[in-house]
Automatic annotation (TrEMBL), chain A:
It is a peripheral membrane protein. The lineage of its organism: Archaea, Methanobacteriati, Methanobacteriota, Stenosarchaea group, Halobacteria. GO terms for cellular component: plasma membrane. This is NADH-quinone oxidoreductase subunit D. Keywords: Cell membrane, Membrane, Multifunctional enzyme, NAD, Oxidoreductase, Transport. In the C-terminal section; belongs to the complex I 49 kDa subunit family. It is found in: Cell membrane. Its EC number is 1.6.5.11. The keyword Cell division does not apply. It comes from Haloterrigena gelatinilytica.
TrEMBL record, chain B:
GO terms for cellular component: respiratory chain complex I. InterPro entries: NADH_UbQ_OxRdtase-like_20kDa (IPR006137), NADH_UQ_OxRdtase_20Kd_su (IPR006138). This is NADH-quinone oxidoreductase subunit B. Residues 72-182 form the NADH:ubiquinone oxidoreductase-like 20kDa subunit domain. Its cofactor is [4Fe-4S] cluster. Residues 19-34 have a biased composition (Basic and acidic residues). It comes from Haloterrigena gelatinilytica. Keywords: 4Fe-4S, Electron transport, Iron, Iron-sulfur, Metal-binding, NAD, Oxidoreductase, Transport. Belongs to the complex I 20 kDa subunit family. GO terms for molecular function: 4 iron, 4 sulfur cluster binding; metal ion binding; NADH dehydrogenase (ubiquinone) activity; oxidoreductase activity; quinone binding. Gene3D superfamilies: 3.40.50.12280. Residues 1-18 have a biased composition (Polar residues). GO terms for biological process: aerobic respiration; electron transport coupled proton transport. Residues 1-34 are annotated as: Disordered.
């Protein structure tokens, strides 16, 4: 399993001229974004252009697909980048006419385009020609209209059926060779971590096919953000995407994109606080991932689950001291953070240091209970395999990618905050299985602890009169019309990106969220088909999805 | 007393072990269940109460929660079950994975159109008497997502709710308080009236024939259960 490891960290630079040469005269025009050069191409050239960029320029990561409607046209934007060098980006813009929004599907080039294009069809209403599975994805099959299109009327009644899934009690499906059974897992099921529905086809105990049915928590996050003003009204929502205590990590995604859009410089002191807070969140989030994974694999509600909760409580206490809330922090502001460390400072620092001091012993405890436990190893080792190439094809990021040996972490590859000034390592494991993903999370907890430690040192020594927590940001932000930007940060589950298009008002015209869980979950069939049912559950647990972020 | 050294031999394994018994009961007859009150009753240790009252008391003190996570609030709900807050202390903490074994449903999160019918089904599967705690602003009004095109404006649009715990998310302490209040109500034999909710599961064939129904008629069977959301009528 070395395919993912032999990557060169010296990426081949592709200049804009090279890109122009590759796209050639298929480029109708340029439509540059703040983060990347953009090329406008015709709807029937999509597949060619994308595969050329993938093969000849190494753009192997379809990070996001944004669909939107303008007054006179629909537009799909493919945001491409590279696993080997995250700072190289290019956008492919595909306009389609308003009366005939049909565009070529990119699914044959990037598997991850499959779910993306379903979502674009569902919410915006663009058809993708040649798509392998053109169904709605987030909204029920019987939904009328496309809610993010311009002429959608939200007041219209809607019908939702209860019986659109085959009934498992009906006679099993037999054909000549096989004798399969259909099994619904979820949407109310303890192993699905919320409201996810897996339509599973079994042959004996082996999973033949699994189709994740999502959308049971689609709470219109993008619409909510498009209705909010940049300055203050959007920030509370990111907390609720990945609600497993990853609040500050998500807030950073919005802070980063909006600060780039409005050209705001964040003071260093605030960056250090942000970095510290974000890493505390990462620890809390990984603790829950471990706890629920143990719950999935062992059905263990008493020991490891409670250990995980115990440690989270400590982190949540610290975060509450810092931000004033246990879960929905709303602590970041554009240009900085809401307030300084709580007084008395040394008490806060001492409390956090205590936590860090106890952490190694706790991690050892987890290793004793979990990773060095034979039963656990048998259950997780060599199950839920996802090879690096496949993981890249599905746009997997975060611990899932790093558990397959893909050395990709935005904190290092596309630095933001204070990360590039600190000493820490990106953790990868070559195993590609459920076990590796657990190991990655456990080691990341230790790396995060290192980062927090260094941040605390910095904060303690920071001269008192230079503690600037917020830049000077105007009360109302109105970025210039037609500025577009796509930016991502390393959330707890992977690359969390946001695309914003400004239209000159104080609210975004389009706000698109690139959720890491959405991509990681789309790779589940690759991991679970051919495995036993319990391994399917373990694989699902090891992906560490949170439905708030999958469905948005 | 544990020891790291393996035991060399086993002593008296066939003899009935009385050590625990001795330490707990001591010499003489077993009078563990005797209390001062019982002594006061003397030779006729009976009290009389109404059976219903007794049953309500029992119910309130042994509640089985449905293991049911929807959204952000479920994280705080898990914390309420887990150590530190330990809801079990109040006789109300064992989460059951199956609705058929549960009698309290905490609704921890935002309910969206696709989930509404499923939640109703889960609620219907719980045996009577059953109670519902709405946790968080989302179950009260849709919370921060009230304006969303896909969000049900509160759990009470679909199922009756006994206790609302406000907050986004409510702190575990608040949830504990809400549960304690529910126990109090159960002990007093109160439960929320089952009024007709705006959104019910209906057979498709029974719906009034309007534009939407006619449009979907080719896709949905007459007997299929559907839930119809009249967004314009929602508060
Ligand atoms: S009330 Fe707040 S915390 Fe609870 S589910 Fe709704 S948005 Fe999440």
């Amino acid at each position: 399993m070395s395919t993912g490891l032999e990557r060169d960290r010296v990426p081949v630079e592709v200049t804009e001229d090279d890109l122009e040469a590759i796209v050639g005269d298929r480029a109708l025009a340029r439509d540059d974004h703040l983060n990347a050069p953009g090329f406008v191409v015709r709807p029937d050239d999509v597949r060619d252009v994308l595969s050329d960029l993938k093969e000849r320029a190494g753009f192997d990561h379809l990070s996001n697909l944004t669909a939107q409607q303008y007054e006179d046209r629909y537009e799909s934007i493919y945001h491409l980048t590279k696993y080997a060098d995250r700072t190289q980006e290019v956008s492919i813009v595909v306009p389609t006419p308003i009366d005939d929004p049909v565009s070529e599907s990119a699914a044959p080039v990037f598997s991850t385009a499959d779910w993306h294009e379903r979502e674009a069809f569902d919410l915006v209403g663009i058809d993708y020609e040649g798509h392998p599975d053109p169904r709605r994805i987030l909204l029920p099959e019987t939904w009328q209209g496309h809610p993010l299109s311009k002429d959608y009327d939200q007041e219209k009644p809607q019908l939702v059926t209860l019986t659109d899934h085959a009934n498992p009690i009906q006679p099993d499906h037999h054909d000549a060779e096989s004798d399969t059974m259909f099994l619904n897992i979820g949407p109310h099921h303890p192993a699905t971590h919320g409201v996810l529905h897996l339509e599973t086809v079994l042959d004996g105990e082996t999973v033949v096919d699994v189709d994740p049915d999502i959308g049971y928590l689609h709470r219109c996050e993008e619409q909510m953000c498009q209705n909010g003003t940049y300055r203050h009204q959007i920030m509370p929502y990111p907390d609720r995407w990945d609600y497993v205590s990853a609040g500050l990590l998500n807030e950073w995604a919005y802070a980063r994109v909006a600060e780039d859009l409005a050209d705001i410089e964040v003071p260093d002191y605030a960056q250090v606080i942000r970095t510290m807070g974000a890493e505390l969140c990462r620890i809390a989030s990984h603790m829950l991932a471990l706890a629920t994974f143990a719950l999935d694999v062992y059905g263990d509600f008493t020991a490891i689950f409670q250990y995980g909760m115990r440690d989270r409580e400590v982190v949540q206490d610290i975060l509450e001291d810092l931000t004033g809330q246990r879960l929905m922090f709303n602590y970041f502001r554009l240009g900085g953070v809401a307030w300084d460390l709580p007084e008395p400072r040394d008490e806060f620092v001492a409390k956090t240091r205590d936590f860090l001091d106890e952490l190694p012993a706790k991690v050892d405890e987890y290793h004793d209970l979990l990773t060095s436990n034979e039963i656990f190893q048998v259950r997780t080792h060599d199950t839920g395999i996802i090879e690096p190439d496949v993981a890249k094809d599905y746009g997997c990021t975060g611990p899932v990618a790093r558990g397959s040996g893909i050395d990709y972490d935005l904190r290092r590859d596309d630095p933001y905050g204070y990360y590039d000034e600190l000493e820490w390592d990106v953790v990868t494991e070559p195993g590609c299985d459920n076990y590796s993903r657990v190991l990655v999370r456990m080691q990341e907890v230790e790396e995060s602890a290192k980062i927090i430690e260094q941040c605390l040192d910095l904060l303690e020594d920071w001269p008192e009169d230079e503690r600037e927590i917020q830049a000077n940001v105007p009360r109302t932000l109105k970025p210039d019309a037609d500025t577009e930007v796509y930016r991502a940060v390393e959330g707890a589950k992977g690359e969390l990106g946001i695309y914003i298009r400004a239209d000159g008002t104080d609210k975004p015209a389009r706000f698109k969220i690139r959720s890491p869980c959405f991509h990681n979950l789309s790779a589940l069939p690759e991991m679970a088909n051919g495995e036993y049912v319990p391994d399917l559950i373990a694989s699902l647990g090891s992906l560490d999805i949170v439905l708030g972020e999958v469905d948005r | 007393m544990s020891s790291n050294n393996p035991r060399q031999q086993i002593h008296g394994s066939t003899a009935p072990s009385t050590d625990t018994r001795d330490s707990r009961i001591g010499e003489g007859p077993d009078d563990r269940f005797n209390s001062k009150l019982r002594e006061a009753f003397g030779s006729t240790p009976f009290i009389l109460t109404k059976f219903d009252k007794f049953m309500n008391w029992v119910r309130g003190n042994s509640m089985f929660m449905l293991q049911f996570g929807i959204a952000c609030c479920s994280i705080e709900m898990m914390h309420t079950y887990a150590i530190k807050h330990d809801l079990d202390r109040f006789g109300a903490g064992v989460p059951r994975a199956s609705p058929r074994q549960a009698d309290v449903m905490i609704v921890p999160g935002t309910i969206v159109s696709k989930f509404g019918p499923r939640m109703k089904r889960v609620y219907d599967q719980m045996p009577e008497p059953k109670f519902v705690v709405g946790m968080g602003s989302c179950t009260i009004s849709g919370g921060p997502f009230q304006e969303g095109y896909n969000v049900v404006k509160g759990a009470e649009e679909i199922i009756p709710v006994d206790i609302h715990v406000p907050g986004c998310p409510p702190r575990p302490e608040a949830l504990v308080y809400g549960i304690a209040k529910l126990q109090e109500r159960i002990r007093n034999g109160e439960s929320s009236p089952v009024v007709v909710k705006p959104y019910e599961l209906e057979e498709f064939g029974d719906l009034p024939q309007d534009e939407l129904v006619q449009k979907l008629a080719s896709e949905i069977d007459e007997e299929d259960l559907v839930m119809r959301y009249n967004w314009a009528d929602s508060p």
